[in-house]
Amino acid sequence: MEDSEKYLMVAALDFGTTYSGYAFSMRSDFLKQPLDIQANPVWKAGSQKFMSLKTPTCLLLDSKQEFVAFGFDAEDQWTDLLYEEEHEEYYFFERFKMNLHNNKAGIPKDNLFLALEPETASIFCQYLSTEKLKGSEPGFTMTSEGTEYMVVDLGGGTADITVHKKVANGRLKEKHRAIGNDCGGTSIDKRFFEVFEEIFGNTIINLLKKECPIAYLDLVREFESQKRAVETSNKTKVTMAIPFVALDEMCQKSLQKNLKSLLENSPYSKEIMLTKGGKIRISVDFFKTFFMPSIEGVISLMREIFRNKSLKNVAHVLIVGGFSECKLMQDAVRNAFPDQRIINPNEAGLSVLKGAVLFGHKPDYIQSRVMRCSYGVKTNLPWNEKKYDRKHHVLMEGEERCDNIFSLIVEKNESVEAGMIVKNLSLHLSKTRSVWTLWCMYPKRQQHQVMSMIRVTCFVNQQSPL
Fold first, then answer.
1. CA 287, CA 283: separation in Å to the nearest integer?
2. For the whole model, what pTM was predicted?
3. Fewest Cβ atoms closer than 10 Å to its Cβ: which of 187, 394, 434, 445?
């Protein structure tokens, strides 16, 4: 952290399960104008030139397993290869993020920071004027010391929520540990395609993916566009383009029924209708039901946090992330929390990325965090027949002791100062095992702030000096 000012540039990579993006800025630009941050302006893809601030997390490699394309370019090139039947020598991967969990990223650790999304979004909004914080009252500023606000980060896969307080020296203190669930924007896509599978069957959807991949991608992108456009006040039906010719041929070939008859005999015949031009018209009320589980999941998380009495001064809610731009979500949150001021900043979809760049330039922005879990170490204590289970009884150097004791360092929901370490160390030497174990022990109740713990085990002979 001390050397952060020596770097010429900070780049942020948002490597998501479904979508990814990037942003960067030079150190000199950050010092003069912190918000002078560069990002890909927009990605365009598909026959209808679908536009997005991020690109799909998919990768295309050639026969030598060398890079060919990423994102929308990878999707488009892969579908072309499928059409030309030249795909056998290529490798296409999508939604592969979690498969890399145990692999090494290849970035030197001295050059890498891992940033928490709600934190970076919060940092980004510290630099925005009141005019760019849509929903805030005149004169409101997030930079005033003592200001408390909830951060609701609504991404594609997940929703993450925390509470921050502005403290001295321009830093932030976490007032509530971050919590989240899988009620992000992609769960809406999943429910839409579940309805499609109920109407036409899983076989038809899989055939569309395999035999007409461009048509399938266009359907995915068309739904994404409609998903972003729907509003609470909408009264008219939602009109969507679908790959009618391809779907109709597959239905007749595989099911001996045409698309129209399958739709008219489905449980959704009153909600989804076919137009003469080969498009579908979806009742707006039914279309909104795709959103309800995600919206209810977000509101449930927020209510869980607001039940904490220590957060009674939190009057502002900052909603960020790509899914936060959904009008249905914004209106639902405002209706659920009428006493809170709901703020949606400009560039909400890029707030996490741009905030991560700012965090890279100033990594000490967060003063303290609230622990998600309890942390401690395994130890042993003198035996007490009335206190311990007999199955943990051991003899160590002729002394009766209870093994497998959890020695607490810090408890869940306790505040931890960034950079704090435990100063008291306890050393245990087990001669019978010829092992010296050095661990950090929990010192005193009022000295609980811990950034990390260290346990080092050294195999030595019994005569080795300490």
1. 6
2. 0.77
3. 445
